[in-house]
Amino acid sequence: MRIGILGSGLMGAKLGTIFARAGHEVVFSYARSEAKLERLARNAGRKAKAGTPREAAEGADAVLLAVHWLRFDDVLKQAGDLSGKVVVTCSMPMNEDDTELVVAHASSGAEELAKRIPEARVVAAFGTVPSEVFFPVYERRRRAGRPSLVYCGDDRKAKSVAAHLIRDVGFDPIDIGPLRMARYTEPFTMLIAQLAYEVKGGPELAYRFERFR
Ligand SMILES: NC(=O)c1ccc[n+]([C@@H]2O[C@H](COP(=O)([O-])OP(=O)(O)OC[C@H]3O[C@@H](n4cnc5c(N)ncnc54)[C@H](OP(=O)(O)O)[C@@H]3O)[C@@H](O)[C@H]2O)c1
Predict the structure, then answer these.
(1) The whole model's pTM is what?
(2) Which atom of ligand 1 is nearest to the CA of 109?
(3) Ligand 1 center to residue 186 CA distance, Å?
(4) What are 143-187's pLDDT values in tens digits?
(5) Residue 182: CB within 6 Å of ligand 1?
């Protein structure tokens, strides 16, 4: 697949690098320095390049939206028309200093995003784990007992694209239903962040659901 990365920070840089190593064509975009995007592309291998948000979105089978909530309008404007595109968002609706959710309970960041780009096919995925865990999970993808990763969305085909990418990173994708489930996954991410960054043990943290029958 061809994947456009909109936001090449902690999440976008790591996921884009893994997508490229897994064999996808990746365009890194939206950082404050062009040199950083070029460096990321070089490091990710020959399937990756740097570009503008518009170049990342053009011809992409999926774009990963990985920016701060306050940057949504800017990056979406720069990306241009996303009609029909699969937009995988890992972004959280956080306030400026990243201490509180600014949307919760009756809506979610993912649903608010979908309202802003109604012609796009939005899936919420990857946002429920810390970025620090992506490389360890990818390195262990051939071992048994993959960690879970929940995802949700309203478009079946878009969700199958997201599930493919989730598997490529090394997780077991768990379809939790429509996009409105993001109003539960986003607060869940706050729990994960608490465990990752405030409780002893470190941020290389994932989760696994098991059913006991
Ligand atoms: N980090 C995590 O573990 C984690 C986990 C779950 C969910 N999330 C969510 O995922 C989203 C991305 O998080 P992140 O940690 O990857 O954020 P980040 O490291 O701050 O990355 C954001 C990207 O946006 C770019 N950017 C910011 N302002 C810009 C501007 N004015 N012009 C151009 N580019 C600009 C940054 O550029 P630079 O590269 O130059 O800084 C960076 O590439 C957020 O919504 C966050 O809540 C993060």
Answers:
(1) 0.98
(2) 45
(3) 16
(4) 999 999 999 999 999 999 999 999 999 999 999 999 999 999 999
(5) no
